[in-house]
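[User] I wish I could look at a protein chain and see how it folds. I have put the entry right below:
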Amino acid sequence: MTADDGAARFSNRVADYVSARPSYPPAAIDFVLANVLAEADSKQADGAKSLTIADVGAGTGISAALFLERGATVVAIEPNAAMRGAAEKLLGGNPRFRSVDGTAETTTLPDRSVDLVVAAQAFHWFDVPRARWEFARITRAPGRCALLWNTRRASGTPFLAAYEALLAEFGLDYAQVRHENIEAAALERFFVPGTYRSRKFENVQRLDLDGLIARLASSSYLPSADHPRYTAMLDAARKIFAEEQRDGGVDLVYDAEVHIGCVSA
């Protein structure tokens, strides 16, 4: 799987991605900003308002919106035109936001132009050695970078177990593209040794039936509407929902993982 493959996979899933992908809990964003602001006392007075952030692999703007809400300036780097357009529609009215047609390996940003690089639900698509070099180039010292993922829990409730079984049954390349395939050793190679910290924060996404269908449709490893197994997948999802819903909804539970450290010495 290449970075180009990752950029192209979501073009026909943008509307579902916008409507059904989970955001990140406030505590996860607090953790990122606290670590960045602690690096420079001069930034403390204005907090996040003093920061310029490159959101790389920004997609439809889920993570960019959270940092904009805190007052930061955000440059969204996204190679997929459809997803970039969705972010521009959502956030383009904010003067502290701009989007760029670029990649993790070629952001097009000037040297030392941002205080922080964020990659939310995107790192597993990067050419990691090239991305690290690029992030080191565009960040001001000490080259701070934050990686975020919502890692869905595959068990713990009957619904979570049934949902995981559905993905295993209908996934086209589910095992290959899961971001959990990123090993701790890869993170240690990406960050400067001794500089990175990790935290997890519970994140619960409540979905009605339409939301559950959209959440499935937003996943690039599952059949799209023109696939012969798409209808069978939806029938299975409806059955699971009918059996497991409580008060008209089901809960997808995630661990919002945050890894933050330096990519340059």
